[in-house]
Write a structure and sequence with these properties.
Layout (H helix, E strand, L loop, with lengths): L4 H24 L10 H6 L1 H13 L5 E4 L3 E5 L9 E8 L8 E4 L5 E5 L7 E10 L2 E10 L1
Antiparallel strand pairs: 1-2, 2-5, 3-4, 3-6, 6-7
Length: about 140
């Protein structure tokens, strides 16, 4: 059977339209999650975070994060020793919002976080603390 150019063009356009429809249908079934539900409020307060990061960079020591699948151990910089520490430590799992959680920072140079939500893979750990009235922010991506 001989096919003319019009039939070939119609088949090509039809196949292209079918491919686009399958792509749109598949994309609409994907689950999308926002990093934060209140992202607008966080964006407004971002300058505070930048200031806290500058304070963190001014410290002589560094935050040290050691992780296993069962726990995460965070050592605070020696510069903060003897200061009143309060704040939060957030653990964000990019692949699943259900695994994200936040814990209150203890008044200690060593923070140990144990949780059943800790599963192997990529995590973003954010430390937002205040020591003697001065804010510090540190964020690190770790693989447990």
């Amino acid at each position: 059977m001989k096919m003319n150019w019009g039939t070939g063009l119609a088949i090509t356009i039809g196949a292209f339209m079918l491919m686009i429809l399958l792509f749109v249908f598949g994309a609409s079934k994907l689950q999308t999650e926002l990093v934060s539900d209140n992202y607008y409020e966080k964006e407004i307060k971002f300058q505070e975070t930048i200031d806290k990061q500058k304070n963190t960079n001014a410290l002589e020591g560094n935050f040290e994060i050691l992780g296993t699948v069962k726990s995460v151990k965070i050592n605070l910089p020696k510069d903060l020793e003897g200061q009143e520490i309060e704040g939060t430590i957030s653990l964000y799992r990019p692949s699943s919002e259900m695994l994200d959680f936040e814990v209150k920072a203890e008044n200690s140079m060593e923070q140990v976080i144990e949780s059943e939500n800790l599963v192997a893979g990529k995590w973003t750990i954010s430390i937002d603390i205040t020591a003697d009235g001065k804010g510090y922010y540190y964020e690190e991506k770790v693989y447990l």
